Request: fold
Amino acid sequence: MRDFAAERNILDIQDGITGDVHEIYYRMPTNEERAAYQNGVFERRGQKLKSRVFENRLKFGSRIISGFTKGTLGIDGKLFSSDPSDPEYRQDWKDLLTRYAGDIVASVAASVFEATGASREAEPESPLEE
Reply:
């Protein structure tokens, strides 16, 4: 269920490097952010288009990520937390995540900004085709 009043949404990201599953918290983007995200995917340079998919995912993913479940992310052999009440909280947790785990940040953005699609229902069979 998509809860419109939820303050925190959770996304499980499978880490292709460690095999861990990271539980990432995020907020839903605004419609303005969704439009800006779509507009930032390509950059026009004269007659050419340059793909900016990864940079765009990193930029907008870092905007909407609000934390993570402690236990799968660390630095210098020590776990750290995004929760200010945790003794292992690091104020720079989002910078660390963006700098060293951009793949995770980009994956969150791809899931949140790009994953919704439309499907068609199967067309009813025509009685004349029997």
